[in-house]
Each structure stands twice: as structure tokens, then as C-alpha cells.
Amino acid sequence: MSKVGFYGLEPWQKEYAEENSDVEKEFFDEKISPEHLPNESDVDILSIFVDSKIDGAVMDRFPNLKFIATRSTGFDHIDLEEAERRGVKVSNVPSYGENTVAEHAFALILSLSRKIYMAYNKIREDGDFSFDELQGFDLKGKTLGVIGTGRIGKYSIKIAKGFSMDVVAYDKFPNEEMAKELGFEYVSLEDLAKKSDVITIHVPYSEDTHHMVNEAFLDQVKKGAYLINTSRGAIVDTQALVFSLKEGRLGGAGLDVFEEEGVIKDELDFLTTGKPDGHDLKTIIANHILIDLDNVIVTPHNAFNTREAILRILDTTLENIKSFVEGKPQNLVS
């Protein structure tokens, strides 16, 4: 009988998994990574989230490992080449929250466009109810540039249309039928930079999308435009982003993800157990600069985090595990 090791579930998620899956299970509170190697275990199936990093050293701790079910759409936290070399299959959750992530992207947009955090902070910290420095801008009539028109990008376009925004989009594989249906235009990445008042990123992370938003791209953006990233941190060149904000080219940014995100989330752990090799210390410093800027809104990789979306993630993950056990694996990425 297969045995599943679930890492990083909250108590209510453990209870849900217990009630909705018949496989043998073990639950571990910790996240696992090369810096935090787990104790050796006889589980043959792993279920992890994006905050666990799986490479060969981690896989070595699971001598019976046959299958990894990540509770996420992205899978760049798993060494797929190493998994394939070992004959370990990997599945993901291809769709759980197109509306969930798109809604969070617009929460960031509205926080910036109406200076919500600045207004709240003035009242809470200073008791200041004046309108000074709080003038925002309408979304109606502005142009939203959508990078990536998959499920989340498509839902973002639908929301934008509800705000009476114009939309331009870039995708490596344009869907002209969808463009006609939703009333937007596909353009080059360069033209998207030049035309957009707000740019939102919805592509997966890969070698092709690494630093897709870089110095050359940011040099072309419309002066005063805003950048939103709810996808993956490394799609944006962090240092180039800081310079663009400091120079006033970008008007602001809303970020749910960072490069070197793991280090930023637990710097004490990095200082005591981390290894500088493989980390960009300049990027880590740049992240602190971003967090301190008044025209930047930061959330902690929280775009996915609604109860409804997490239940969809758990349901798909449990179904992925069941299908694998039954010899009919689904949603495989490797």
C-alpha cells in the first residue's frame, strides 16, 4: 500500500486530507529543502507546497519515492530532471484559482490607484484625515497590459473589462478567438510596455520567462505606469525594477512574489544555516529597498490564499494521488 508524506499542511487541511483520502498518510509540519533536509522516511509519495524545495539531496531522504504531488500550479521548486532520472513522476494542480489570483492582482492595483495603504497609514499612525498626497486615478479608460493570457490572465482581462479598461496582451501563443470574444488586442512585448498604464504578469516561470521584465523592458514602459506581479519573482529583474522606480519611470508596483523569496521570508534562518552560494545578495538588498518604498505594495505570496482555492488545491492533489496509486496518473509535468 502506498504511503503519502504531506509536508506543510495547516491543521484544518490535515483534517480535510484525513477525511477525504483513504491512503496511508504521515503529516509533517516543516517545509523541506536542501538546507532543511528531512529525516529519512519510507513514504513513496510526497505532497509539498511551493515553499519546499526538492532536489536530489532531498530525494535521497526518501529511498522509496515514486511520486511527488505539488499543491501548486508552478513546479519550479522541484528538480524535474533529477526526478525523471530517478523515475519519479511529478504532478501539479493545473487550475485552482484563476479568479482567486486575478482578484488579488486587482486588489494590488486598486491599493495603488487609490493609495489605500497610504491613506490608512496616515489615519492610523498620525490621525491625519487630510487628502494631502492621496489623489489617485481612475481605472476607467486606462490600458491594462496583460503578460500571459492563460487561465489567470484571461480572468484578469474579464475583470479589467468590468472596470471599463482597454486591454492589450502579450502571449507566446496568442489566442485570437479569445481576443475577439473578450475585446482585447495582442501586441508585442515592446508595444505592451509602451501602451500600458498598468502591467500585470501571468506567465509561469521558466528559462524563457526568467527576467522577462528587465532593464530593456522597463526602459520602454510608459512613464508613470504601474507593474503588478502575482506570478513568480524571478520573472522580474529586481534590481532593474528598483532603478526604474527610483528614477520615476514606473509610478509604482504591487508585488506578491520576490526573487530570493525564501531568504526574505526567513533571513535569520538564512544567516544561521543558509549558504550564500546560489543566492544573489544584491537582489536580497534590492528587495529591502522595494519593501521600504512608499509607492510599492507588498504581500507575502498570498494571492492563492482563499479557503475556496485551497479546497480546490487539496481536492485536485488528493485526486492526483489517488489516480497515481490506481495506475492512472493525471496532471503530470514529469
Automatic annotation (TrEMBL):
Keyword Ribonucleoprotein: no
GO terms (BP aspect): L-serine biosynthetic process
Start and end residues of each D-isomer specific 2-hydroxyacid dehydrogenase NAD-binding domain: 106-303
Occurrences of domain D-isomer specific 2-hydroxyacid dehydrogenase catalytic (ranges): 14-333
Annotated keywords: NAD, Oxidoreductase
Molecular functions per Gene Ontology: (S)-2-hydroxyglutarate dehydrogenase activity; D-lactate dehydrogenase (NAD+) activity; NAD binding; phosphoglycerate dehydrogenase activity
InterPro entries the record matches: D-isomer_2_OHA_DH_cat_dom (IPR006139), D-isomer_DH_CS (IPR029753), D-isomer_DH_CS1 (IPR029752), D-isomer_DH_NAD-bd (IPR006140), D-LDH-like (IPR058205), NAD(P)-bd_dom_sf (IPR036291)
Family per record: Belongs to the D-isomer specific 2-hydroxyacid dehydrogenase family.
Protein name, per record: Hydroxyacid dehydrogenase
Source organism of the structure: Candidatus Colwellbacteria bacterium CG10_big_fil_rev_8_21_14_0_10_41_28
